Structures are given as structure tokens and as C-alpha cells.
Amino acid sequence: MFANSVHIIILLSMNRGDLTNTQWERLQPLLPPQKPKTGRPAVDHRRILNGMLWILRTGAPWRDLPERYGPWRTVASRFYRWQRAGIWERILASVQAQADAEGQLNWEVHSVDGTIIRAHQHAAGAKKGLQRPKP
Predict the structure, then answer these.
(1) 22-26, 33-37, 80-84: least confidently modelled range
(2) Does pTM surpass 0.90?
């Protein structure tokens, strides 16, 4: 009964953009161990990862991270630590390999980065104010 209660609490506390159980089961083995060999156990990886995804989704600064994801400094430091350790690259390679093995990727259609960033017309880099010709 206790396990079911915990599961229900987790489901109720999940937000729209949080990892689903299926997504978490695929990512969990790719992350570093939850409890390091020395020192105190790390804050729950799933909670921290959901915080990172919230930042990615909203584009908000780290300091605006909702409290439900833990301290913003913890989330930010783990993000940068994992980046330096190459964990994000390994996760991407592994997830791509899994999807390719399952026949879910068409390499002729998918691209690594298809980002388009549109700037406002006033952000084109022109100098502000009237432009007068030099005498």
C-alpha cells in the first residue's frame, strides 16, 4: 500500500512538461549513479532533470526555477557538471542509437539542429538615432 501511495503522490506532483515514467526509465541508466561512492547522496536525478527541462522549455534564468525542482544552484551546478563530464553527449548518442535500432529514425529526414532564431526588426543591429552624413 505504501508504494502505491508514493506512486500516486509522484503522479499528482508531476507537471505537464515533466518526464513521464517511460521517458525516465530510458534515461535513468544513462545518468551517473544516484549515490556517489563518497559523500552524501545527491538530490534525486529525476527532480533535477525536470528542473533542467523546465529551464530549457521556458528560457527563464536559473534563479526563476520553481522550488518544486529544488534549489536553483543545485540544478544549475549539476547541469554544468554533467556538461563538462560529457554526459549530455553520451545520452544523445545512446538515445539516438536506441531509436535507430528500433527503426524510429530516418537519417535522411532528421537533423541534429534545425533551430531558427528570429530577431525583431528593431534588433537588426543598426545604429540608433538619426544618421547624418559627415561633412
Answers:
(1) 33-37
(2) no
